[in-house]
Amino acid sequence: MNRQRVAGATAAPRFEAEALAIAAIGPIDFTLAAGDCLGLAAPSGAGKTRLLRAMADLDAHAGSCRLDGHPAEVFSAPDWRRRVMFLPAESAWWFDTPRPHIRPDRLAARLAALDLDTRLLDQPIERISSGQRQRLALIRLLSYNPDVLLLDEPTANLDGPNIERVEALIDEYRQQNDACCIWVGHDRGQLERVATQHLVLDAAGKPTDTPCS
Amino acid sequence: MQLISLSFFDLGLAAIAVLALAGTAFAMRLGVTRTLLIAALRTTAQLALVGLVLEAVFAQRQLIWIALMAFVMLLLAGREAAARQKRPFAGGYGFAAGTASMFLSSFVTAVATLLIVIRVEPWYTPQYAIPLLGMLLGNTMTGIALAMDRLTQEVWRGATVIETRLALGATAAEAIADMRRDAMRAGMIPMLNAMAAAGIISLPGMMTGQILAGSPPWEAVKYQILIMFLIATGTGFGTLLAVSLGARRLFDDRHRLRLDRLRPV
């Protein structure tokens, strides 16, 4: 098995996965320190999303994840997910407008950082474009102050300048909150920019040694 | 006023009217002639059968036979409620949850009414127990069938909403609360409509029957009000219980949505 080595091995582990597997995908292992970001790349259909869902304990899985040394089982499932939070590629909305979905904490600053007008908060969800919704979903996620961000292609619907803004906001959040991040993406160049360590899966969902640069 | 007994000749006259309708429907090519005739025959056969059973049970007046008949009615109602589901639970859970809810709500309501309100001696006197339970079960079955169908369909369609809420740290109960509430309300609507329409738009069947059988209207009205309240209570609590059991089944102990517990369509 390929074990990804921690970059700064001296730092205390913040988020770890050990033999994490779901169906035929994995097993994978990694150890992230505070502020680390793991770039997870794989061909389409290899099961990246299912691995993120397993980390958030949204699906039954084998292996275990630990946060600050505590395994997921010692947390209640909702408590674990408030700390280890999954951002799906397509987020759902259930109120009529974005505002009641998002906690007010630092809202204005983050909207500005992603070039979003505050008036969007009170518009009907259907009238908001997919790119704006994707950025709002990220702001909703950050408003819960999670310790680990599980990001499933967080810039898939965005244009160049907005991709940079999202990368900058996530980077700033990681540094300020000692948070970790798992970033699933297709764009190898982006993963090189944002990630501090890398994990590549082959089409069958097994880790490979293929360098991603 | 005396009860006027109907002869088979009287029923035959009514049957001729149905045949006239069947003939008209056939002439107009409505395509329901066969169904209409089969339905008329089914009504006759089923009611004749239940009449024979009731005659026997009423003659015996023994708790064991009345309990057996009640149990058979309960199982049939449970099966009927489960059969009306578009996306039923896999492995008979829907039948079990529906039947258990009907048992708790209908039986408790019926027995409590016989013991506390009507105070008939003995309390299981079949002339009171069987019709009372029948009306309760029939209405509770409709409520539970509608509510469970609504719940499973809404959850199926709204799975991404539930999972997004779970991902943001909601408990299973919080994530499904809206859909659970909608399903409970859907199950109660027929009962609410029946209560609102009673006497103005429709004369309830039991009251009509009592008046035809010679009861003073005022006595029939009092019984009908009692039945309405019992149906409201039985249907309401039965629906709440069935939806709660169903909503719980859709998640596991780690608050994961388990759509695999619904039968694939």
Automatic annotation (TrEMBL), chain A:
Residues 1-213 form the ABC transporter domain. InterPro entries: AAA+_ATPase (IPR003593), ABC_transporter-like_ATP-bd (IPR003439), ABC_transporter-like_CS (IPR017871), P-loop_NTPase (IPR027417). Pfam families: ABC_tran. Keywords: ATP-binding, Nucleotide-binding. SUPFAM superfamilies: P-loop containing nucleoside triphosphate hydrolases (SSF52540). PANTHER family: ABC TRANSPORT PROTEIN ATP-BINDING COMPONENT-RELATED, ABC TRANSPORTER DOMAIN-CONTAINING PROTEIN. This is ABC transporter. The lineage of its organism: Bacteria, Pseudomonadati, Pseudomonadota, Gammaproteobacteria, Salinisphaerales.
Automatic annotation (TrEMBL), chain B:
It comes from the Bacteria. The keyword Glycoprotein does not apply. Signal peptide: none annotated. This is ABC transporter permease. The chain crosses the membrane at residues 6-28, 35-57, 63-82, 94-116, 128-148, 189-213, 225-247. It comes from Salinisphaera dokdonensis CL-ES53. It is found in: Membrane. InterPro entries: UPF0014_fam. It is a multi-pass membrane protein. Belongs to the UPF0014 family. Keywords: Membrane, Transmembrane, Transmembrane helix. Its main location: membrane.
